[in-house]
Amino acid sequence: MDTLQNAINGKLTSSKSGKAQPVYNPATGEPVTAVPLSSASELSEAVAAAKNAAEAWGRTPPLKRARHMFRFKELLEQNSSKIAEAISREHGKMLNDAQGEVNRGLEVVEFVCGIPHLLKGEFSRNAGPEIDTHSDRHPLGVCAGITPFNFPAMVPMWMFPVAVACGNTFILKPSERDPSAAMILFDLFQQAGFPDGVLNVIHGGKEVVDAILEHPDIKAVSFVGSTPIAEYVYATGTQDGKRVQALGGAKNHMVVMPDADIDKAVDALMGSAYGAAGERCMAISVAVPVGEETGNRLVEALTPRVRTLKIGPYTDPDAEMGPLVTRQQMEKVLGYIDLGIQEGAELLVDGRGFKLQGYENGYFIGGTLFDRVTASMKIYKEEIFGPVLSVVRAKNYAEAVDLINAHEYGNGTAIFTRDGDAAREFADRIEIGMVGVNVPIPVPVAYHSFGGWKRSLFGDHGVYGTEGVHFYTRLKTITSRWPTGIKSGASFQFPSLN
Ligand code: NAD
User: Which side of the chain, N or C, has fewer Cβ within a 10 Å radius?
Assistant: First the structure.
């Protein structure tokens, strides 16, 4: 079995750490490749290459940088099914879902094709007598990205295209659970003609992450993953003086109002709770019907749909949901189902014991549905990250809003209703970063920005869109006087127009 290589200074190089671990096809449980667990010194080599490339790349006119990005975009389009296949083989998600992920990453590349416009500064003539002021945004130097398993192509593309278009160089540390898609991205990036060292890929785990956080030549770190690691990355990186954005976990609620179209709400819940086996940071994991009758109608319509979910490997075009990413993740989710029963939730559909003929060693769990989950239960408080939907019934609208606002996570939420007043009020009052109105997975388009609130994001900037451009640049403001008609004599007064 081959072991993936790192990409340093434009070249693929085998890790010398002597440590590697297998990467599995979660549908079969068979290893498909191996990923090296690189050492801190290999990370240092990549940083040296990125630092070496940073000066010339930072001075390259933004329009030229954009032209490389246009070529990268075309290559991504031509190779999108190859990337999708690599994602599905190691993650387990359906091919059309993986294709959707590639498309959303591609949109970020399209967005940064407009980088000259995005980096345009501001100018004020006659800010004072014969004094002009202009502000513009400068690259930071070497930036790094640490990414999760659940979007092995899209999340890296939330980061490096924006950083690179802004004039930075980049080190990507992909998830060790599904690292192959990142290598295709690197290959296409090199084919697009970017100079060597602009993008580097170092595989590994905690040792490489710690080396990134400690390296003095890395100026900014973007992280996406679980909340405990996000908090650690933010605290450690900022302590070392780096700029850090660290996006963490989620528990996303969908409020179903009494006037909602129940069939449409159920369709939305099926896709958003069970798509990608619930392994999406914007998955809906809690349905909150308002009123007992809405709860009864929702559960009645939902239960048969969950029971008849079509589950299979990504190679089955009819399957709607695949396996969990690893055996460990499958066992964790099974543990949560056991816990929910112990905690007294009502198990309406039990996904434990699901077996698929011919795929007995795959990491499959059937769709699972709990009713009468309460806010004090662990299965409500914690992120399960599997095909498990909890129904928490709210007596009224105010109780639904208070429930969501009290949760420690604040990534996404949605309301299903026909009442414009309720929808507007909800969007206003809810303490969540991304809100959907009759939209179950409100992931913002590339020219807006993505980011949660509360313990779903540590740092001051969201990713991509204007927030991403601001994260990867720093502002400089220049005040100049021409012609040099400076009166002689020193002035000790603070400069003002009066
Ligand atoms: P994870 O936190 O286990 O891993 C993320 C990255 O951190 C990986 O590259 C991994 O190698 C590294 N890492 C893991 N343990 C580490 C440690 N102890 N020290 C240093 N680095 C470590 O996350 P995951 O399981 O790959 O991804 C799923 C999580 O990501 C979920 O919690 C999900 O909600 C979250 N997520 C959030 C968003 C968002 O936008 N908020 C998007 C996608 C995923």
Answer: C
